[in-house]
């Protein structure tokens, strides 16, 4: 997954995953579920639609609230995470008016590596 950090990535929502297969993206969503293994997450976007995220390594921290994931979209429409960054909910407004954005966004510089 080299090249994920080399250029700006589109920020997408769950309904756009199929359009970005094999490409690096940014996905911001509310954490809905963590798999017991800690290696998979379910995030819901600003429209309430779900996206599956697979991690290379199990989570080493408790995660909740809003999370940005940077990664590649697999052939199955799953986001293969390279990094993630939790956001404090009291510092951002999260909803479809905030989330859906056709502009390119850059990776958050404070991403937590996996």
Automatic annotation (TrEMBL):
Signal peptide: none annotated. GO terms for cellular component: DNA replication factor A complex; site of double-strand break. One of its GO terms (molecular function) is single-stranded DNA binding. Keywords: Nucleus. Its main location: nucleus. Pfam families: Rep_fac-A_3. The keyword Hydrolase does not apply. It comes from the Eukaryota. GO terms for biological process: base-excision repair; DNA replication; double-strand break repair via homologous recombination; mismatch repair; nucleotide-excision repair. It is found in: Nucleus. Belongs to the replication factor A protein 3 family. This is Replication protein A 14 kDa subunit-like. The gene is LOC107568286.
């Amino acid at each position: 997954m080299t090249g994920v950090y080399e250029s700006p990535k589109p920020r997408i929502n769950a309904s756009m995953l199929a359009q970005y297969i094999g490409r690096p993206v940014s996905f911001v969503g509310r954490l809905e579920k963590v798999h017991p293994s800690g290696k998979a997450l379910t995030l819901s976007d600003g429209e309430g639609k779900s996206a599956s995220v697979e991690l290379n390594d199990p989570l080493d921290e408790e995660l909740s609230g809003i999370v940005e994931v940077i990664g590649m979209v697999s052939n199955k429409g799953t986001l293969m995470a390279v990094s993630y960054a939790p956001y404090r909910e009291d510092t951002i407004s999260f909803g479809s008016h905030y989330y859906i954005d056709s502009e390119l966004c850059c990776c958050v510089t404070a991403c937590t590596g996996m």
